[in-house]
Amino acid sequence: QVRLVESGGGLVQPGGSLRLSCVASGSIFRIGAMAWHRQAPWKQRELVATITSSGSTNYADSVKGRFTISGDNALNTVTLQLNSLKPEDTAVYYCNAHTFVGNYWGQGTQVTVSS
Questions:
Q1: Which of residues 34 and 26 earns the better pLDDT score?
Q2: CA dist., res. 95 & res. 71, Å (int)
Q3: How far is CA 15 from CA 19, 25, 29, in A?
Q4: What pLDDT is attached to residue 107?
Q5: Under a CB-based contact definition with an 8 Å cutoff, are residues 19 and 79 in contact?
Q6: Structure confidence by residue, pLDDT tens digits, 63-84
Q7: Are 74 and 31 in contact (CB under 8 A)?
């Protein structure tokens, strides 16, 4: 069983920065890719960024140029650097690990951007 724990969320002002982390533990099959998603209340969950085990990254248009995803070689620790934050970025952020046997989700960490 894979356990994912996110951390680093909090309250920041518009234009500020935040660094989110996702740590995988437990019975871990090789993680082929890790994704960050976010969900605001009563809105659908949105894919924010992905990183593959080969290092390829992709970003949603709404965050491209502001957010950066990175990870260690095995993707057991993945971070999402949030810069130039906007109120529209307010949401619960979740990491999602893609493995050969299935996908796993963390519990999420709250990001609030407000003055």
A1: 34
A2: 12
A3: 14, 33, 38
A4: 97
A5: yes
A6: 999 999 999 988 999 999 999 9
A7: yes
Q: Is 60 exposed, middle or buried (CB count within 10 Å of its CB: 0-12, 13-18, 19+)? A: middle
How many angstroms separate the Cα of 58 from the Cα of each of 19, 63, 72, 96?
Answer: 18, 10, 17, 14
Does residue 61 come out as left (phi exceeding 0), alpha (psi in the -120 to 50 range) or beta?
alpha
User: At which residue do the structure tokens 């893609």 appear?
Assistant: 98
Residue 77 CA to residue 66 CA, distance in Å, equals: 20
Spatial distance between the Cα atoms of 113 and 93, rounded to a whole number of angstroms: 13
- Strand order in 77-82's β-sheet? 2-7, 18-26, 77-82, 67-71
C-alpha–C-alpha distance, residues 65 and 99, integer Å: 28
Task: Please say whether the beta carbons of 94 and 103 come within 8 A.
Answer: no
